[in-house]
Amino acid sequence: MGEIGAARAWLRARRGDERASSAYGRSLGCWVVRALLSDTSLEHALRTVLRHLRLLAADPRRATQHPEGALARQLALFVRQLQLGTVVPGPSSADRAQLTALLQRLRGGGGRGERPAMTDAYASTPVAAIEGAIVALISGVYTGPGFFDRETEFMLAGAPAAH
Fold it and tell me: Whole-angstrom Cα distance, residue 30 to residue 91?
């Protein structure tokens, strides 16, 4: 994550919030960390998602400025990149099944012949609920000063970042 306070808050959420604890299993979490440490493109993809989440946590009104499903799409792309990665050893069969199930939820069902969840027609599908739950959960992780890096703090305050 890059922020100690946010990482600790996420661990607390994983222990005490059913949404966070059911998001993925311990084995998959460990494998993803190994994948992130061995593949810089995965790390970059996750940082992109986390940057988006930090900004939404700082001001949830920003979510209305993004198309329905934008966050789910970012997360789905990250999960898909995990599935296609070249990390050795790869995920266990149980972890692969979790990745597949997560990808299907992020795509709003993801069955063959279904439209992708990233369209306005899916506003009432679980994708909207997933996005809302993610933003609510992450808002509890990224709270107060010290959770954002210096550049993000300047950006959120509306001041130009110092270089």
Answer: 10
Does 95 have pLDDT greater than 90? yes
**According to the model, what pLDDT value does residue 109 have?**
55
Q: What is the pTM of this model?
A: 0.70
Domain boundaries, the chain: 4-156
pLDDT of residue 78: 92
